[in-house]
Amino acid sequence: MRKTQITIDVELDENHVPENITWNAQDGGIEKEETKATMISVWDDKAMEALRIDLWTKEMPVDQMKMFIHQILISLGNTYQRATGEEDVAQWMEEIAEEFAVKSAIK
């Protein structure tokens, strides 16, 4: 069995707030790529719940965070459609993403 790694390095300030975030993906040729935010979700099948890590640096602008969330919402709809084949629910999720974009004033 082949293994690969994706890692995220977080530098914290004295109050444990992220100052710098970099990520690495061996197979993608990404090494110490800087980012201002990351959201990671994993499924705990024993507890039947999603576990999350949401991090962003002090330098992450609010307008970019809104765009980040919007794009994640769109991606969730796409992932849902691929995983379930339920086109109608995926379309509804996209509509929610677009409503978010309007309400958050990014569109």
Molecular structure report:
The chain is α+β, with helices and mostly antiparallel strands. The chain has two domains: 58 residues, no CATH class; 46 residues. The strands form two sheets. The protein has a three-stranded antiparallel β-sheet with strand order 1-2-3, with no helix packed on it. Helix 1 packs antiparallel against helix 2. The mean pLDDT is 97.
List the helices and strands and how they pair.
Blueprint: E1 6-12, E2 18-25, E3 30-35, E4 37-44, E5 49-56, H1 62-84, H2 87-103
Antiparallel strand pairs: 1-2, 2-3, 4-5
Helix pairs in contact: 1-2
Outline of the structure:
This is Gliding motility protein GldC. This protein has 107 residues and is of the alpha+beta class.
Helix-strand category: alpha+beta
Poorly predicted runs are none
For the largest beta-sheet, the strand count, sense and barrel status come to:
3 strands, antiparallel
Total DSSP E strands = 5
Q: Which characteristics define this entry?
A:
two-stranded antiparallel ribbon; 37% helix; 5 strands; 107 residues; alpha+beta; three-stranded antiparallel beta sheet; 2 domains
